[in-house]
Design goal:
Strand content: under 5%
Distance between the termini: 72 Å
Largest sheet: 2 strands, antiparallel
């Protein structure tokens, strides 16, 4: 794993009660956070088309940590308030966007383009015969 469960806990302040687990059930909380870290890593690998065979640097770890923290925040928000009343006539469900554009922007240097599109430019010189000049 690129980041640790403790790093996620430190950033988010999450505890078992936030997820409506038994008080003190750190084992179950750690399992859930470990799963979210794995999912975050998979999302990053999928987005960048990069398996990071040489390992990841601190910038990618930061994105992974913030992405996992977004998962934590969404889980807490969805458990506490699955719907938000906007006004008297409309109720809105919380947004499920966790992979924000700012995170994607931070990953741009790590994106590998596997497309077969050629950037080749063909240039043709059109000349006339000498007899016309």
């Amino acid at each position: 794993m690129w980041i640790t469960v403790d790093e996620v806990k430190t950033l988010t302040g999450i505890n078992p009660q936030h997820l409506k687990l038994e008080q003190g059930d750190e084992r179950k909380l750690n399992e859930i956070i470990t799963s979210w870290i794995s999912q975050s890593e998979s999302l990053i690998k999928s987005y960048t088309h990069n398996q990071f065979p040489e390992g990841v640097d601190d910038a990618v770890k930061s994105v992974c940590l913030r992405l996992t923290a977004n998962m934590v925040a969404l889980a807490i928000e969805r458990r506490d308030t699955p719907r938000t009343k906007v006004n008297d006539w409309r109720i809105q469900v919380s947004s499920a966007e966790i992979f924000e554009q700012t995170l994607k922007d931070d990953l741009k240097p790590y994106v590998i383009d596997h497309s077969n599109i050629s950037d080749k430019i063909d240039i043709f010189a059109i000349t006339g015969g000498d007899e016309l000049w």
